[in-house]
Structures are given as structure tokens and as C-alpha cells.
């Protein structure tokens, strides 16, 4: 009847292009800088009864770094995910506050190995953001990495083997995962190997995934791959066992193998790879633990931390009271924590601001704070996987999954180790922990994820006009 | 520093931290992109505050039955394809617009060389009467024997011919 009536029940269905979301990112960044500044003031008030003198400089420093990173994203990756950068900045800022807070501890200051770590960490953060900017500015398209598939493999092997080179490698606290660079201090090449390996696995699996996925027999609900397709996974497994034996580091080994299994599963959609992976890592870990004393000791400390603690207190060499102390720190934090600067996690002594930094968070922020921090990590992983889902090219998909999978695995390995779920490893919490290699490598990782997400969310060119429209035949009146 | 201030700061910090997490999750929620479905008529109806507005508020299924039942006893409930490659296909009439054509997003996709990509549409007017409208097709839409020029109410059981396809409304 009336001309408006047809529209009453009509719905329009239209595609929404992803908006650029840069302003959302900026707002979140301001929030992400404000939270650490609040924490910083809180630590000062709790320990020294006054707002710390460096508050303005510190806030401006972090804000400036975040601002630079934001401008770089705005310029070079305008469609990138709005959450990755603020999440990383927030975690990095919280880590800085926690390191500064541990610097204030009288107990830690009395240790012979004490260095004021916070200014150095700020410097590392600046270097990390610079690396982030370089990645975004010079890597216009993540697919260029595909060209370096096999070079990446060699680079990763070299990086992993460097700590074993005599004169270059350094055995620090039992794990040989550092190298000493004259004039620069020590470096953990494993952190960088994580990224380079993801590039290699993505490039390799993209080419081989059909063979790995399709040529298989079905047996008891599982797709069993052919013998010769087992080759790659066996090689990777063997290398990670070698890492475990020679570098005595469970973390790197687990990360290396776990990342491969995750990417293999994503590339082939075969659950059997996960089953194989779990079986093989169990066999490998148990096998190595049966003869390697350093690994054995870590397992002992995991099974019975209290016994380790007692032995260590009695002065028996080769035992560490840290695992038990970390558990006490979590326990004394309770649900809501003791508040910034009011815990006693400095009793953990050395490595309190690197491997065990999570224990300080657990004590001073409590369960509520730890859950929030783990959620922040979870959100980074979620955004990475979401990027992989949105990516249009298989290499980008696999790379994003590999990087976020490695990131997630590392968090599991470190948090699980500190909380006593799995044996301790020598890895560090990304962004939170003190350490140049870790901060640099993780900023590079976030840079690559942002690059992939920019490509994935960039609006696609408009589709060609509908070809159906011209093919309608005309009825000829006869 | 007094105990109270520190406690307030401690709880305040946790609240702020969680607020960030919640805001981040909200951003993810608003960041889901894909297709957006907008009910075009709803705002206009809400402004009118009359009988149609009440119809809009009820779920579509009830609405179609109400609208038809109140007006006419013989309201059609389904659309049936009686000739052509899609013979036997039925579409329940629930107050929605049905588009016909070769375009992939049509309600009934016609595999017919003589149909246009957006050939015709069938929709209920405000009284629940079903209307067929030709969308400027090449070969036209026929109701009974006459070629449509304007939107026309469809009598129950009258054949609508589009190319080689014939559809009709049934109870």
C-alpha cells in the first residue's frame, strides 16, 4: 500500500570492513602507561613514605616509548590489531615497576651480585621498542620471511648451538643457555631462536603439509602418518633432546618441540600429531632426567621442594631453596596480595627479578593480580591466534600461530615452573622479567604479529562486478 | 603512610588492573567484524508508536500469524515452487521479504537462464497482505497471465511465473 511498507521487514546485510582502530589503541596505551605509574607511586609510598623522585621521568619515559611505538604503528601498520601494543606496553611497564621495587630491597642490595636493574631494563625496553620500529618499518610484508625458510633453519641452529661454543658460552646457574658478548654482557640466544624457528617451521610446513596431512592410515580413530613422514618430527625431537642434554635447559627444549607440534597440528589438522608429540616429549623428558644430574635436581626440587629447602638451609651444595620460597611467596600473598612494596619476595635473593619475578607479583598483588596478569598474556595469545585466523596467506597463518603458540608455551613453562606445576626451567617471563634478550626478542615478536595483523585486517580490494548480471537471455516473442 | 591509604591503593590497583582487562575484552567484542544485520524499519516504527510498532516488537513468527489472522482468514503460510528446476521447494512465510533471482544472495536462487540476477521480490505489506514486485527484470514477472508493472497483491494459489519457474502461495 504505502511506499514505506516494504522496508518494514527488510534487513540489510552488509560487510563491515575492519576499521583502523588506531584511536582505540591510543586510548588503551594511555591507560596502559597510567597503570604502571600508579604502581610506581604506590611502591614509593609503601617503602619510603613518599612519592618516588623519579616518578615524572619514569612516567614520561614509558609514555614516550609507548608514544613512539604508537606513531610507528600508525605510520607503517595502520590496520593492525589495536590490543597487541597496549598489552605489551602494560606488561613491560609492570615488569619495570616490579624490578624497581626489588631494587629498593635492602636484602638484595646487600648481595654481592646486586646491580640496579631498573634503569638497565628501561634501556632494554627502549632498545626493544627500537627493534619493534625497525621490524615494522623495514618489513613491509611478512611474506618476505618466506624466502629465508632454510636460512632461518641454519640461523636457528647456530643460535641454539652458540652457548655450547667454548669461550663464548657461559654456564650460569647450571643451564648453558647464555653467551657472553664482550662489552655487552650476556645474551640468551634461545629467545631469538624462538622467532627464527617459527619462520622456518612456517615456511617448511606450508610446503609439506599436504603430504603430512593426507598420506596416512586410519587406526583406532587416529590418522597414523607414513613412516617417512615421521622424519621431520623425529629430527626436531632429536635436536630438542640434544638441547636438553647439552644445555641442560628443559624450557628451551620444551618450547622448541612444543612449537613444532603446535604448528604441525595447525598445518595438518591431525590430532595424531599432538598424541605423538606428547608421547615423544614424555619419553624424552623421562629418558634425559634419568641420567642428567642438573635435570634430575630440578625434578627433585619440583617433587619435594621442602626437602630441597631443608638441604639448602643445612648448607648442602647443589640445592636451591628458591622453589619452596616462591611457593611461600604465593601463599603469603593470598587472594588480594600484600600490596606493592609490602611483600618479602626479596627473600628469594638472586633471580628474584628474572626467573622468579612472578612470585613477587603473586605475593604483592595476590591471586587477583596474578589472574589479571595471566589474562593479559592470554589476550596477547588470543590476538595472535585471531590474527592467524584472519590472515589470508598460509605462511602468515602458520607464522602467527607459531609465534603466539611459542609465546603461550613460554608463559606456561615459566609460570608452571614458578608455581610448582612442572619442574623449573631457566626461561623468563616475557616482558615482565629482567633481561635484555628476552625484552628485545619479545618486542620483535610483537612487531611481527602486528605486521601480520595489519596485512590480515587491511580491507581487501573491492570484488569484481557480478558477472551474472549480463548473462540473462531475452525471451524472443515468436 | 597510614595503613588505610595503603589498603585503598592496594585494592585500587587491583581494580584498575582488572578494569584494563575488561576494557581490553570490550575492545575485542567491538572488534569482531564480518556482516552486520540491521533491521531497517525498526527505528521508523518505534517513532510511530502505533500498531506497526507493536507488530515489530513481537517475534517475526507470531507477527506473521497475527498480522494475517486478524486481517484475513485465508492467509498464506508458505510459498511453493510448482514448476521449474526447483519444483517442490517450499519457503515458510514468516513476515520476511523473499527475493528471487540468479544472484547468490537471493532467498530462492533460480538456476534459470531466463531469470535476471535480481528478478522479483515478495513481501508482506503492513496489513499482512503479500505483495509481489518485479525488480526491473529482463523478461518480466507474470501473475496469472498479466505482466507485472506495479507491486501487486498475490491472491492465494495464483501462479507467479518467472522464466521457467512458477511459484504460488498456499495455506
UniProtKB/TrEMBL annotation, chain A:
Q: Name one GO biological process term.
A: regulation of cell shape
- Transmembrane among the record's keywords? yes
Alphabetical UniProt keywords: Cell cycle, Cell division, Cell shape, Membrane, Transmembrane, Transmembrane helix
Keyword Transferase listed? The answer is no
Family matches, as InterPro entries: FtsW/RodA (IPR001182)
- How is it placed in the membrane, per its record? Multi-pass membrane protein
Q: Which Gene Ontology cellular component annotation is one that this UniProt entry carries?
A: cell division site
Transmembrane regions: 26-47, 53-72, 84-102, 122-139, 151-172, 192-207, 228-246, 252-268, 273-291, 356-377, 398-425, 431-450
Q: Which domain of life is it from?
A: Bacteria
Give the GO molecular function terms: lipid-linked peptidoglycan transporter activity
The protein depicted here goes by the name Cell division protein FtsW
Amino acid at each position: 500500500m504505502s511506499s514505506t511498507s516494504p522496508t518494514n521487514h527488510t534487513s540489510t546485510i552488509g560487510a563491515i570492513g575492519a576499521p583502523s582502530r588506531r584511536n582505540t589503541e591510543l586510548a588503551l596505551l594511555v591507560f596502559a602507561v597510567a597503570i604502571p605509574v600508579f604502581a610506581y607511586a604506590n611502591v614509593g609510598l609503601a617503602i619510603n613514605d613518599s612519592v618516588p623522585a623519579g616518578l615524572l621521568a619514569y612516567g614520561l619515559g614509558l609514555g614516550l616509548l609507548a608514544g613512539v611505538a604508537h606513531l610507528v604503528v600508525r605510520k607503517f601498520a595502520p590496520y593492525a590489531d589495536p590490543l597487541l601494543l597496549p598489552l605489551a606496553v602494560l606488561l613491560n611497564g609492570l615488569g619495570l615497576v616490579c624490578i624497581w621495587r626489588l631494587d629498593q630491597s635492602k636484602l638484595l642490595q646487600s648481595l654481592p651480585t646486586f646491580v640496579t636493574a631498573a634503569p638497565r631494563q628501561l634501556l632494554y625496553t627502549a632498545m626493544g621498542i627500537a627493534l619493534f620500529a625497525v621490524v615494522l618499518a623495514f618489513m613491509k610484508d611478512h611474506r618476505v620471511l618466506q624466502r629465508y625458510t632454510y636460512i632461518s633453519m641454519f640461523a636457528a641452529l647456530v643460535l641454539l648451538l652458540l652457548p655450547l661454543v667454548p669461550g663464548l658460552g657461559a654456564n650460569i646457574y647450571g643451564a648453558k643457555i647464555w653467551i657472553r658478548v664482550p662489552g655487552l654482557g650476556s645474551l640468551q640466544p634461545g629467545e631469538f631462536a624462538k622467532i627464527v624457528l617459527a619462520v622456518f617451521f612456517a615456511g617448511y610446513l606450508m610446503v609439506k603439509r599436504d603430504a603430512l596431512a593426507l598420506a596416512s592410515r586410519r587406526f583406532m580413530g587416529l590418522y597414523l602418518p607414513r613412516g617417512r613422514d615421521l622424519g621431520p618430527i623425529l629430527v626436531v625431537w632429536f635436536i630438542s633432546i640434544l638441547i636438553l642434554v647439552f644445555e641442560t635447559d628443559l624450557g628451551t627444549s620444551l618450547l622448541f618441540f612444543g612449537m613444532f607440534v603446535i604448528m604441525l597440528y595447525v598445518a595438518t589438522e591431525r590430532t595424531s600429531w599432538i598424541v605423538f608429540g606428547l608421547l615423544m616429549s614424555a619419553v624424552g623428558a623421562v629418558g634425559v632426567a634419568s641420567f642428567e644430574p642438573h635435570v634430575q635436581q630440578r625434578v627433585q626440587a619440583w617433587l619435594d621442594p621442602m626437602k630441597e629447602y631443608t638441604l639448602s638451609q643445612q648448607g648442602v651444595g647443589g640445592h636451591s631453596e628458591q622453589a619452596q620460597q616462591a611457593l611461600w611467596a604465593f601463599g603469603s600473598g593470598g587472594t588480594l596480595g600484600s600490596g606493592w612494596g609490602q611483600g618479602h619476595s626479596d627473600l628469594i635473593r638472586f633471580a628474584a627479578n628474572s626467573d622468579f619475578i612472578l612470585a613477587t607479583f603473586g605475593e604483592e598483588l595476590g591471586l587477583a593480580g596474578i589472574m589479571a596478569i595471566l589474562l593479559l598474556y592470554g589476550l596477547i595469545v588470543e590476538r595472535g591466534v585471531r590474527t592467524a585466523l584472519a590472515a589470508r596467506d598460509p605462511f602468515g597463518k602458520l607464522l602467527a600461530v607459531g609465534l603466539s603458540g611459542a609465546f603461550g608455551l613460554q608463559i606456561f613453562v615459566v609460570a608452571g615452573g614458578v608455581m610448582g606445576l612442572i619442574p623449573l626451567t631457566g626461561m623468563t617471563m616475557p616482558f615482565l622479567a629482567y633481561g635484555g634478550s628476552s625484552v628485545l626478542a619479545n618486542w620483535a615478536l610483537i612487531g611481527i604479529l602486528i605486521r601480520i595483523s595489519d596485512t590480515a585486517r587491511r580491507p581487501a580490494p573491492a570484488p569484481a562486478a557480478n558477472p551474472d548480471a549480463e548473462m540473462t537471455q531475452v525471451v524472443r516473442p515468436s | 603512610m597510614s595503613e588505610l591509604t595503603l589498603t585503598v591503593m592496594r585494592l585500587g590497583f587491583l581494580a584498575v588492573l582488572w578494569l584494563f582487562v575488561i576494557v581490553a575484552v570490550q575492545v575485542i567484542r567491538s572488534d569482531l567484524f564480518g556482516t552486520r544485520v540491521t533491521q531497517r524499519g525498526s527505528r521508523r516504527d518505534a517513532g510511530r508508536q502505533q500498531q506497526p510498532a507493536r507488530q515489530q516488537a513481537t517475534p517475526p513468527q507470531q507477527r506473521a500469524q497475527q498480522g494475517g489472522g486478524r486481517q484475513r482468514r485465508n492467509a498464506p503460510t508458505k510459498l511453493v515452487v510448482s514448476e521449474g528446476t526447483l519444483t517442490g521447494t517450499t519457503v515458510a512465510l514468516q513476515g520476511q521479504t523473499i527475493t528471487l533471482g540468479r544472484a547468490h544472495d537471493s532467498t530462492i536462487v533460480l538456476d534459470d537462464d531466463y531469470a535476471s540476477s535480481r528478478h522479483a521480490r515478495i513481501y508482506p505489506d503492513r496489513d499482512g497482505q503479500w505483495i509481489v514486485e518485479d525488480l526491473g527484470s529482463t523478461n518480466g514477472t507474470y501473475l496469472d497471465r498479466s505482466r507485472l508493472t506495479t507491486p501487486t497483491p498475490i491472491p492465494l494459489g495464483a501462479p507467479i511465473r518467472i522464466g521457467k519457474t512458477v511459484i504460488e502461495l498456499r495455506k
